[in-house]
Amino acid sequence: xxxxxxxxxxxxxxxxxxxxxxxxxxxxxxxxxxxxxxxxxxxxxxxxxxxxxxxxxxxxxxxxxxxxxxxxxxxxxxxxxxxxxxxxxxxxxxxxxxxxxxxxxxxxxxxxxxxxxxxxxxxxxxxxxxxxxxxxxxxxxxxxxxxxxxxxxxxxxxxxxxxxxx
Length: 166
Hints:
With 166 residues, the chain is an alpha+beta fold. Helices cover 38% and strands 17% of the residues. Strand 8 and strand 9 (121-122) form a beta hairpin.
């Protein structure tokens, strides 16, 4: 997907075929390029109105993208580190971390890091509920440590002031 500043996204799916495509889109006002979480057998077959079972049959897989979005950069760092520790606790080392460009991070786990089947169901068909389940589990797993890390460098009073609360 191509974003045009505050004017929104262009037509999706957008395919970049040639080296000059990015420059051409940038000259046309593109401000950022976004990759989807889902992987498709043929993205050009996607269209509005497809049913979930149709999408499931066309989906080759999905990557898990954890978007840490906060106005407090130190909190985002603690959260990203906690998520990495949680992944490595389960021997997941196939991940990437990227600064989001504002004040957060994206932690990405590629589809290939997941088992093919969970509870007799192909994981490629578990979108978006698989993303929600994994994210919810990881959130619960890191919650205590994250609170402790944040409070180790900020008092409750400092946090309240920074959030505009009493």
